[in-house]
Amino acid sequence: MPFATARTVSLHGALGHLVDVQADVSPGGSHFVIVGRPDQSLREAGDRCRMAIVNSDHVWPATTRRVTVLLSPADLVKRGPHFDLPVAVAILAADGVVPTSALVDTAFIGELTLDGGLRSVPGVLPMVLAAASRGVRHVFVPEPQAREAAMVPGMAVFGMRSLSQVVAELCGEPVPEAPPVAPMSGARLLSWRGEGRLDEVDLADLRGMTDAKYAAEVAAAGGHALLLSGPKGAGKTSLAERIPGLLPDLGPEESLELTAVHSLAGVLEPGDGLITRPPFSAPHHDASKSSLIGGGTGQVRPGEISRAHAGVLFLDEFPLFRHDIIEALRQPLESGDITVARADESVTLPARGMLVLACNPCPCGEWSAETAKNRCTCKVPQLRDYRNKLTGPLADRIDITRYVGPLRHDQHDPFTPAETSAEVRERIAAARARQLQRYADCSWRLNAHVPGPLLRDRWPLSEAGQRMVDRDLYDGRISSRGAVRVQRLAWSLADLASVVSGRDVVPGVAQVAVALQLRKGDPLAVATTSRRAAG
């Protein structure tokens, strides 16, 4: 009985499942059926594949026989037009056009047009990663995405323009010419002057703000969540926009993870290579929950929180975000991933980025504790609702809280040169290298990601430092979750102190004291923020 199997990958979030596309061509009435829980786009694959095969100068077998296509495993929901190419190849192999031996250890990814051309599809990199982990060594993809697929080590990639080219390659025949493949509809078609503005900003541009700059350095060193509060115009947004410049380049593993997420989101350009710089995402407070957390119709797409994985997610004026969005941030702050649950599936996406929040003291930004300077026009209910979002479970998950006040004349010395982003980035890179070495046998990379129980057992504080934390815990000044975050901060401070002093520093009283101040929002001493104190 004519029968053949081609392989492809079905994506569920960032997780890929290898799917056998089995085609059977048998005698019977002219009929085509595809089974195995296909979605609507897959049910339409029969029409696309039939016209693509006919217009590629091959014979569609269903004119005289029955064609049955099974997507196995049958209990897995399949969706997406990238099944077109494996369906067409499996049918041609079952009809004897393509040798079945050429399909061994090979996966096929691509959408077909009616004239037999290929079109790009989102998620090629995570698909190829999943295929490689399951023993596939050859993959056929649309030509513009060959470079993306080639990022996976050990994978032989064939970038093709049409079904005719794929068939010729599988049969060992000369590959015919074909028109170039069009880029994805989600590709960047427009650019504007100034879109790379954040690449030009530098920490040295900011006057004063010594306390907040130091807090940003500690947060960047350990990947801690940071809350900046203060009146409008104080520099909260300017500081947040400079934090990505303080982060070192991504490592190979982080680059592959982030590039796979961007591929899944459909925002990876054909000529793009691995993403090596930490991303920065700053969605507006009117953004929908699905755009920020992830979701959408059909296949789940990563939201801004996942696209900022290994980088910075900045929520300016975060009390203006909807309540359900703020509550949804609890999970990624604890676990480093986000789960989007639906009726027929549950998708988990990475979200281990650095969260930076900024807010004014009130909706209008004119409130002041000094009666003479208070020009707030907000009504009491508005002020209450606004400030309620600054407290509660989400606020307890913020590691560092800093107040950014207006610049005073005694806070800026024009004769003292400010540190540049490059200088601070060197210290942060060295501190992160220490963490990478310390957690080499673990599944996390930074201090902010270490689970609390393991932190206490394997990397405890000194006895005196632990007594300081316990005193604030038992007095109710910090919660149990806050105590864990203080210990994580103390390790980040110790890593920075080790870089400055050139010797190993274990978190002690000095680091714990500063960590408690950062956690509770207390002002820091000038000696602490000078960077010359080795701890």
Second rung of CATH, namely the architecture of the largest domain = 3-Layer(aba) Sandwich
The tally of strands reads: 18
According to CATH, the fold-level topology of the largest domain is Rossmann fold
Whole-number count of domains: 3
CATH class placement of the largest domain: Alpha Beta
Q: What Rg is obtained from the alpha carbons, in whole angstroms?
A: 28 Å
Percent strand: 15-25%
Q: Give the structural class.
A: alpha/beta
pLDDT averaged over residues: 86
CATH homology-level superfamily of the largest domain: P-loop containing nucleotide triphosphate hydrolases
Question: Count of DSSP helices?
Answer: 21
Distance between the termini: 77 Å
Name the features.
Rossmann fold, 18 strands, four-stranded mixed beta sheet, alpha/beta, Ribosomal Protein S5, domain 2, 535 residues, elongated
Chart the SSEs and their pairings.
Elements: E1 3-12, E2 15-27, E3 31-35, H1 40-43, H2 45-54, E4 65-72, H3 84-94, E5 106-108, E6 111-112, E7 118-119, H4 124-133, E8 138-142, H5 146-149, E9 156-160, H6 163-171, H7 210-222, E10 226-229, H8 236-242, H9 252-265, E11 280-281, H10 289-293, E12 294-295, E13 301-302, H11 304-307, E14 312-316, H12 323-328, H13 330-335, E15 337-341, E16 346-350, E17 354-359, H14 380-388, H15 393-396, E18 400-403, H16 421-438, H17 452-458, H18 463-474, H19 480-501, H20 509-520, H21 526-529
Parallel strand pairs: 3-4, 5-8, 8-9, 10-17, 10-18, 11-14, 14-17
Antiparallel strand pairs: 1-2, 2-4, 6-7, 12-13, 15-16
